[in-house]
Amino acid sequence: MMKIRLNTSAEIKGTIQDIPVPDVVRIPIPKKLKPVVKKKQIVGCGQVIAEISSKGAYNLGFVHASIDGMVEDILPDALVIGPLPPPKEGEDAVTPTRPDPCTELDSLSGEELCRKLLELGVDTSKLHATRTLVINGLNPEPGIIISEQLLQNTVETLKAGVQLLERALKPGAITLVVAAGRNVTVHGCTTVNASDTYPATIDPLVIYAATGAEQPANVDIISVLDLYYVGRVAETKLPLTESIVSISGKTFRAPVGTAVQELLNAAGCTAKTDKKIALGGPMRGEAIFDLSIGISKNSKAVTLVEEGFFPPVQPNPCINCGECVLACPARIQPGMLSRFAEFKLVDDARKQHVEACLECGMCTFVCPANRPVLQYILLAKQLLAAQDAEVATCRLQD
Ligand code: SF4
Ligand code: SF4
Predict the structure, then answer these.
(1) Same domain, 341 and 297
(2) Which of 18, 116, 246, 263 is the most buried (most CB within 10 A)?
(3) How many Å lie between the centroid of ligand 2 and the Cα of residue 327?
């Protein structure tokens, strides 16, 4: 069975290609957000189409239309926007209303600026003032080249992103982590070289490489991709409506909600039956079966997995070989946790620190029994989260 190389660094040849604006987009709507538009409503690019219903000062969240058009459908997990209707006879064509550039962005700072960024579609909720900020400049997974592509081609946008975050967060220090041997800098950052071999590229291990500490209290991390998005908002002063996606060694910029099929067409890829398709990378991506699914800001990649490239996982019994334990960067016992999940012993999984799993997928990758180890662990996490949510809603009189 052929397996992929785990080095993530790659030679970047081309530049970022823009996908033509599609006629139809299917914009993913996260569960906690509610649509605020109706079917057949005309929307302008950048207009808010979904938001968190219970808005508190720090509980903002918005999704914006990524094209001008008409709301065609409201699905449980997405909103479909299609072309504008043709003008009626004797009437002018409808003109969708787009938001004006947010000029306040230049004068705001601190919390007010963080909240404005949230309104413009950039999630700053995991970043805190005055902490050390680590920028993860390593490509996230083997075959996904977005971080190095952005570092090579969008230096000014990344600089704009750093300058805006400096105003919003006043970080104590900013460290950029890039692959060993790479000589890259971004405005105001100290560069640190680190291993690019997966899973060393995932956030907790990048923080360790940058600071020498595990889970330090005063450190936040942001990916180069998210920094680029901050920079785009700083440059345009408009809501974020685009996504950067890596496909087959090329990088594309497309409106959020662009169908996977359109991206595959732009990349010149044909989705044959001997390939599986994942939204995301080969290690952490999710298999998809419907190519009309739209990409989100966090999709990062569309991966075509050749037949034979990955072992077909099955609910095979664990042979207790310990390979997954050796591969696990979180130093937990994936095999045992997967067996707890398999037999619905989720409380035992909690006692054995299932929450410490970094979701890197290495356990599934190395398992000689081809067990879906990570998938079992994710199941345990979901069941525990549901259990906790139920307990949290219990009232004393119940
Ligand atoms: S996905 Fe598997 S290998 Fe990775 S941290 Fe979780 S248990 Fe460990
Ligand atoms: S690698 Fe697979 S078979 Fe071996 S202990 Fe882990 S889960 Fe069990």
Answers:
(1) no
(2) 246
(3) 11
Q: Which helix (H) or strand (E) holds 328?
A: none
Any domain includes 282: yes
98 and 37: one domain? Answer: yes
Q: Is residue 376 part of a domain?
A: yes
Counting atoms of ligand 1 from 1, which one is nearest the CA of 361? Answer: 1
Give CA separation, 281 vs 144, 245, 287, in Å. Answer: 7, 11, 10
The number of the ligand nearest the C-alpha atom of 375 reads: 1
For the CA of 363, the nearest ligand: 1
Q: Check which CATH number belongs to the domain holding 41 and give it.
A: 2.40.50.100
> Six-digit token pair at 267?
């990349």
- 331 and 302 inside one domain: no
pLDDT tens string for the chain (398 positions)? Answer: 445 678 899 888 899 999 999 999 999 998 888 999 999 999 999 999 999 866 555 556 789 999 999 999 999 999 999 999 988 888 888 889 999 999 999 999 999 999 999 999 998 888 999 999 999 999 999 999 999 999 999 999 999 999 999 999 999 999 999 999 999 999 989 999 999 999 999 999 999 999 999 999 999 999 999 999 999 999 999 999 999 999 989 999 999 999 999 999 999 887 665 678 999 998 998 889 899 999 999 999 999 887 766 667 889 999 999 999 999 999 999 999 999 999 999 999 999 999 999 999 999 999 999 999 999 999 999 999 999 888 887 765 55
Q: How close is the Cα of 364 to the center of ligand 2, in Å?
A: 8
User: How far, in Å, is the centroid of ligand 1 from the Cα of 372?
Assistant: 11
Task: Count the domains in the chain.
Answer: 3
Q: Where are the alpha helices (DSSP H) in the chain?
A: 110-119, 146-153, 155-169, 203-211, 224-236, 260-266, 323-327, 334-342, 346-351, 362-366, 373-393
| Ligand lying closest to the C-alpha of residue 358 | 1
Q: Which of the listed residues 208, 214, 325, 328 should we mutate to test ligand 1's pocket, taking the one with most ligand atoms within 8 A of CB?
A: 328
**Encoded tokens for 281:** 């990378």
Is the CB of 257 within 6 Å of ligand 1? no
Tell whether 371 and 296 lie within a shared domain. no
